[in-house]
Amino acid sequence: MATLRDIRRRIKGVQNTEQITKAMKMVAAAKLRRAQENVVSARPYARKIAGLVDHLMTDELKETNPLLVERVVKKVLVVVLTSDRGLCGAFNTNILKEAVRLIDEELLPQKIEYSMYCIGKKGFDFFRKRDYSIKGNTLGIFGHLKFTDALTISNEIVSGYLNSEYDKIVVVYNEFKSVVRQEIVREQYLPIAFGETGKANHPSIDYIFEPSQKEIIDSLLPKHLHSQMWRILLESNASEYGARMTAMDNASTNAKELIRSLKITYNKARQAAITKEILEVVSGANASKSA
């Protein structure tokens, strides 16, 4: 049975842990606010440029532009976004499960080759230890995320796609919904897929393009890919801070409950020790009287 000293040490240790989790929650909350503002600012531009390209798209361009042509899928690049650090609840676990499910239950049964591009240390370490085929990685960018990071990643994976190293690129990441809710998204990055929403919202008008429509599309597509990658990075970054803040809040609550439970145990043990000492004194007194 634990002694009073052991229980006091345990209470002190849990109190120190509670202080740390509270501090980490405050840091995550401060960073989340900035990350949330960034992702909310990036979404309109990403949607607008996607809608613009969709509106200008023609069937001829879809059949000739290498970024738009649908290929027979034999090789797939899976881009996985995780965090560089832990202590953020199920943020990384859910992403890794989804990526593993995509590879083991969908790609491999169809005899489709895969490669992985890991953004974030947790995902890279996970797949490296399990001997998954890793094509490349980018680590340590979320602490000081910049648009140049999105450009570098986008250019690297697009280059591989244009060189026919893979026929399709899929990105798996956490989309930021709210502080307590992040949604796992599996998004096709290449070939670029567009619906009919752009044309449905605009009347059929014969425009005169200067320069040509093809030149405009060719210049917009790289910007579209860069903006989408930047938005994805921001979504993942904001989701990480939201998950970390929630996890630290839960940890602080659990620490308070544990401290309360330990204090009750301590008081019971202390009361039992005092009662035992009183009984010993009374027994000694009675024995002296009997003698």
Task: Give a description of the structure.
This protein is of the alpha/beta class and 291 residues long. The protein has a domain at 47-243: ATP synthase, F1 complex, gamma subunit (Pyruvate Kinase, Chain: A, domain 1). It is 63% helix and 14% strand. It is built from seven helices and five strands, in the order ααβαβαβαββαα. The protein has helices at residues 4-56, 59-64, 91-107, 121-129, 147-162, 197-200, 213-290; strands at 75-81, 113-119, 134-138, 168-178, 181-190. A five-stranded mixed sheet has the order 3-2-1-4-5, with helices on both faces. Strand 1 (75-81), helix 3 and strand 2 (113-119) form a beta-alpha-beta unit. It is elongated, with a radius of gyration of 29 Å. The protein starts with a helix and ends with a helix.
Please give a quick description of this structure:
With 291 residues, the protein is of the alpha/beta class. It contains 7 helices and 5 strands, in the order H-H-E-H-E-H-E-H-E-E-H-H. The chain is 63% helix and 14% strand.
In N-to-C order, the SSE pattern is HHEHEHEHEEHH
Q: How many distinct beta strands?
A: 5
Within the largest sheet, what's the order of strands?
Answer: 3-2-1-4-5
Distance between the termini: 35 Å
Query: Could you say which structural class the secondary elements and strand pairing correspond to?
Result: alpha/beta
Shape: elongated
Largest sheet: 5 strands, mixed
CATH class of the domain at 47-243: Alpha Beta
Low-confidence stretches: 196-203
CATH topology of the domain at 47-243: Pyruvate Kinase, Chain: A, domain 1
Radius of gyration: 29 Å
Overall mean confidence score, pLDDT:
87
The CATH architecture term of the domain at 47-243 is 3-Layer(aba) Sandwich
Number of helical regions = 7
CATH homologous superfamily assignment of the domain at 47-243: ATP synthase, F1 complex, gamma subunit
* Fraction of residues in β-strands: 5-15%
What is the helix fraction of residues, given as a range? 55-70%
